[in-house]
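User: I'm new to structure prediction. If I give you an amino acid sequence, what do you actually give back? Let's try with this one:
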Amino acid sequence: AYVTQDDTLLTTLTVKEAVHYSAQLQLPDSMSKAEKKERADFTIREMGLQDAINTRIGGWGVKGISGGQKRRVSICIEILTRPTLLFLDEPTSGLDSAASYYVMKRIATLDKKDGIQRTIIASIHQPSTEVFQLFHNLCLLSSGRTVYFGPASAACEFFASNGFPCPALQNPSDHLLKTINKDFDQDIEVGLAGTIPAEEAIRILVSSYKSSEWNQEVRNEVTLMSAKKDSSSIDQKRRHASFLTQCSVLLRRSSVNMFRDIGYYWLRLVIYVALAISLGTVFYDLGTSYDSIKDRGSLLSFVVGFLTFMSIGGFPSFVEDMKVFKRERQNGHYGVIAFVIGNTFSAIPYLLLVTVISGAIAYYLPGLQRDWERILYFFCVLFSSMMLVESLMMIVASIVPNYLMGIITGAGIQGMMILVAGFFKLPNNLPKPFWKYPIHYIAFHRYAFQGLFKNEYEGLIFTTNDDEGGSHKYVSGEEVLRNTWQTNMSYSKWVDLAVLLGMIVFYRILFFIIIKTTEKVKPIVGSLSCMSVSPKQTIQVVENPNATPIHGEV
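Assistant: Good question. You get back a string of structure tokens that encode the predicted 3D arrangement of the chain. For your 554 residues, that looks like this:
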């Protein structure tokens, strides 16, 4: 298991919910629900979180548990499956000395918990003396070169034997890191003989380690491990919950998160209702006069273009969901398809609620055609358009995981689609290269515009005044569609709706493909960058001495 440096958790869940949902996702179906619950509760007690079990994790603008407790929740989630090898990336990052000590003490006690002999490897930032004393083994690296790898208690002795003794009353870890840090080109004190450059000190230590007994033991053990043919224990695949169980759990967890996150849908609902009331009052009781032809088009275009545009307001929540997904996916908690299905179906009830409430206001006040089939069609197109915008923003979130850049990108794409959809410039007047072919046909707004136009104008008769004789003339809605809006009348409005629904499926499949492609390409890019850039980071590693290769166990 791997615990990342950042505590990427769903801030709306309680500690109990976060661990329990994770247990249902990770543990196999061979375990009953009661057994999974018992495992989750035991793990929470194991990490000392029983007092915060019903407290929400919290985040920006929401009070929750402390930083040390968040780190322990992250560890809880990863040790549910009882892994024999646990990696932690700077588990004390952002914590004070007291919190760092208690977190590391809990981690150190996991080496032989629940009857499992466990190896724990952690990179750590500026450990205190108490934290340093918890280490069993220590690995020091400088620019990719091994300076020391052996018992932590013998590190100071090794440095002293090479002329770099640790001063009295000084934190050993501070002395070790200061000695092998060459970022500032400082001189290192060598006993009573004066100072030498940091690079020279590192060269002396690296050379000394290469000829040491510890290095020889490590090499011998690596040779023995490489010669072993039986790797069944390593190759054994970890069992997970079934695909249907994963979809069900992700659906429930996502629904809870959306319900509790005010910015996900509730704030948008308020904005949608305010906009719908504004639309209804501005275009109140349109009637069937000649002027209402233009007003109806403006109303429907605003509904499709700008009312649905507000769905980008949920982008920050999408980004947080993607961060949690990437962390859980990295540790193999569930598959991409399960995530896409859970996210898609959990959003449907909230989008339906927004559609019905705001759509009813925007449809009733202007006096659009009061026919149940037309009303239902209006709701379907509005819902489909909102779903498409959310799908588009999920695609953007998977590519641009930054709030500001993502919102700008999503708004730019939608603005381009609205521009060529057929209202601001009629379809036949669009420049054919690029704008009409293919952008006009790719933009989902085109099909929403045409579908709503057909839904509203068909069957209406508009009255015009003849200036000369004062007599009335009549224009049918079908003539308006053909001549005024240049609508394609060769197929039904239901075809436009079918295209919108098909585009929803296509966008979600594209979202899935992008995630899978990123998973395949990212390791390749990372390996190439590592080959071209020499690492300069200095890290420390703490391991269980009874489970490390030095002692002949895997």
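You can read the tokens as a compact description of the fold. Here is one thing that stands out. Residues 534-554 have pLDDT under 50 and may be disordered.
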